[in-house]
Amino acid sequence: MPKRSYLLLIALIAFKLTFHFSLVHPDYDLHRDEYLHLEQANHLAAGYLSVPPFTAFLSLLIKWLGGGVYWVRFFPALFGALTMLVIWKLVELLKGGWYAQLLAAVVFICSGMSRINILYQPNSADILAWTLIFYLVILYIRDVKPQWLLWMGVVAGMAFLNKYNILFLAAGLLPALLITPQRSIFREKYLYGGLLIALLLALPNIVWQLQNGVPFLHHMKELADTQLVNVERAGFIKEQLLFFLLGSAVWIAGLTALMGYAPYRPYRFAGWTFLLVMALFVYLKAKAYYALGLYPVMLAFGSVYWEHLFSRSWLKYARLGWLVMVILPTVCLFRVIYPVMPPKDLYNAMTPRMRDVMCRWEDGKLHDLPQDFADMRGWRELAGLATMAYQQVPVAERPYTLILCDNYGQAGAINYYAADAVRPAITFSADYMCWFPKMDSLHYLIVVGEAPAEYVRKYTSGYTKTGQINDKLSREYGTGVYLVEGISPVFPRKLYQWQQEEQAGSRSW
Q: Per the database record, which ranges form the Glycosyltransferase RgtA/B/C/D-like domain (predicted)?
């Protein structure tokens, strides 16, 4: 690797690793999904109702490192930096120079990828896995060294343990190889060795899914009924362009060049994979970010092609200007793309047009903040309110007190911020339905969410509202905390019964 390229890479990786720590204003908490993933460290298993087990073991590592916000932010940033490194190596493999590497890295940083890399979710590792699989297949095609196929199996197996989204890549990649001259890969025995490795790595989770009635299918059906039903196919396509703004010209150039640029002919399968997977996502009305794993390889092809275009006569003097143009939209929109401002300032800074683009949530309705940002508000306040309610319970009665929440974000936030002050919170939502403590005697109940429902009130003597979240820019705005007294001795048994019913409902058979 030339010295200039090496120094650029070090500088960009250092920037990428530190950049994300400046993107979240202190007024924001962690995201609701992050609390669920962190809680999984306390309940290690071969599978979960919501995600495969990789994130749980990563959460255990975060817990060993102290569990602080720094480490929660570090790992998605690390996966983002590693993805950028693989893009860099892809450009090098395609014989691109330092300009192509810099262009690909800049577009990657100035894109929706950076927002993904803020959050501790399986998405950052998923994008890295897709990029590595493309890289290893391209390496095999170039070198015809079968060991790359074994490594592809390792990556695919680990990717499956991280997020089932990798199955969509397989659904596009395998037929794409079949319809191109690279179909000869199916005569390579090492391919099947790699697939066997992937299967062996995925097997513990596959067995867990089968033993538990394949809750993954129930989760997907619930997702389709409550969220994907609000996805518009035209909106999905529009968001693909918004992820990269002007940088879309780079990945579009890569996709176009794969279909007609002679040096890319051996790698045409990558273009077909992109089109097949994208068609599948459009048909299924998937969330826009599901497709992000397709783009790093397109950025590599596109940046090398742009470098080729700029090598012609006077056009080489336009290279710097093109870099500036790619960066400029992100610089102009930086304060509204990322949660760098206090929520109220962000709300005031948004024009109606911006709000229409950025603040349409999964329910299909317009709101005051982007959904991810609203999902990062109110959690510390909620933990404080739950702690205050818990402190109203006589000390002797606290071992017989339960905190019951409406959703996993509430339970996870209380357990993260108030773990030393209250008993663990529970909910019938997501994986928490499997984590109920055994309680034969229950004297007090703290309900978090809406006012206690009829199924709770009929087994109690009354309740008092002790507080609520008043932040209108929080998705949890209006969430109340209620201290419930006079619990019937029957209630613990009913609670266990409802838990079993919820668990049974998560089974696909």
A: 51-208
